[in-house]
Amino acid sequence: MATQAFQALLQTCKHVVVLTGAGVSAESGVPTFRGSGGLWRTWNATDLATPGAFVRDPSLVWEFYNYRRELVQRCRPNPAHLALAAFERKVTEDGRRFTLITQNIDGLHAAAGSRNVVLLHGSLWDVCRADRHGMKASKPCENRKQPLVPALEGKGAPDPATMAADIPREALPRDDKGHLLRPGVVWFGENLDPDVLSRAQQAVDDADLFITVGTSSVVYPAAGFVSQVAARGVPCAEVNLESSGATASCKYTFQGRAGEILPDLLEVSNV
Ligand code: OAD
């Protein structure tokens, strides 16, 4: 019944906004941040994704990102990504609006064919200059070369017994003027790009149907979107393996794997 009621809303809504997190890419083989799979060597992924970690040990942070780039390069969009892209095509062909806000940096939504995507936390394929505090000192730009420098070749194995590579600074990724580069993603302790945040917020304010998929909903500002939408009386739905910080705000909850639920739920399994 809940499914039918939700699907009726999908037919009539004017602007559907979908927020995704790491869970949407889990079935593609990209590890999530929390729960099992969140560790790299002995570190939590979240300990290395900070400007402070980069200042202390840029070689270690680059090893970690080299590993992630290597891994994600081999991953393909799964049925959840493909269903969202097919649903966007269907909605936009009807002259309605669709916005996908993702916290993921893996690029798998674009690879699946999604078009109107807001990359809240940036892209794993971007690099930028780092200042002496490890903060961004230039606008991130794409560099898909892998590895980025010869010194990173084969570096970043996640096994806890792996010795740190301790790559000298001069052999780490640098721009053409010799400035040290860092990953162009948003780290803990950093603000989101204001233009990106404003695009996301506009969609959140305009949504008349909101779906959150595969996010634990603990990292702000994304974690606050669903309650903002729900507070306007707009129906919200969640697709997740388990309950999350968003569940209480959602009228519709669909528990299970996103790749199994979304194609049928969005009625795009035959598209
Ligand atoms: P988390 O790792 O915190 O949460 C993943 C969520 O996906 C959990 O709620 C799981 O239950 C759910 N999940 C796992 N597999 C799933 C599947 N196959 N189908 C459906 N749901 C599934 O990841 P995020 O919420 O994305 O930020 O994390 C938010 C942010 O915290 C990340 O973007 C990153 C991280 O620190 C930065 O790096 C700034």
TrEMBL record:
Signal peptide: none
E.C. no: 2.3.1.-
Root EC class: transferase
Catalytic activity: N(6)-succinyl-L-lysyl-[protein] + NAD(+) + H2O = 2''-O-succinyl-ADP-D-ribose + nicotinamide + L-lysyl-[protein]; N(6)-malonyl-L-lysyl-[protein] + NAD(+) + H2O = 2''-O-malonyl-ADP-D-ribose + nicotinamide + L-lysyl-[protein]; N(6)-glutaryl-L-lysyl-[protein] + NAD(+) + H2O = 2''-O-glutaryl-ADP-D-ribose + nicotinamide + L-lysyl-[protein]
InterPro entries associated with the record: DHS-like_NAD/FAD-binding_dom, NAD-dep_sirtuin_deacylases, Sirtuin, Sirtuin_cat_small_dom_sf, Sirtuin_class_III, Ssirtuin_cat_dom
Location of this chain's protein in the cell: Mitochondrion
Regions crossing the membrane: none
Keyword Mitochondrion among record annotations: yes
Pfam families per record: SIR2
Residues that bind NAD(+): 21-40, 103-106, 214-216, 240-242, 258
All copies of domain Deacetylase sirtuin-type, residue ranges: 1-271
Binding site for substrate: 65, 68
Keywords: Mitochondrion, NAD, Transferase
Major localization listed first in the record, in broad terms: mitochondrion
Catalytic machinery residues: 121
Biological role stated in the UniProt entry: NAD-dependent lysine demalonylase, desuccinylase and deglutarylase that specifically removes malonyl, succinyl and glutaryl groups on target proteins. Has weak NAD-dependent protein deacetylase activity; however this activity may not be physiologically relevant in vivo.
Record note on domains: In contrast to class I sirtuins, class III sirtuins have only weak deacetylase activity. Difference in substrate specificity is probably due to a larger hydrophobic pocket with 2 residues (Tyr-65 and Arg-68) that bind to malonylated and succinylated substrates and define the specificity.
Family of the protein in this entry: Belongs to the sirtuin family. Class III subfamily.
The name this protein goes by in its record: NAD-dependent protein deacylase
Protein source organism: Coccomyxa viridis
Lineage: Eukaryota, Viridiplantae, Chlorophyta, core chlorophytes, Trebouxiophyceae
Gene from which the chain derives: g1642
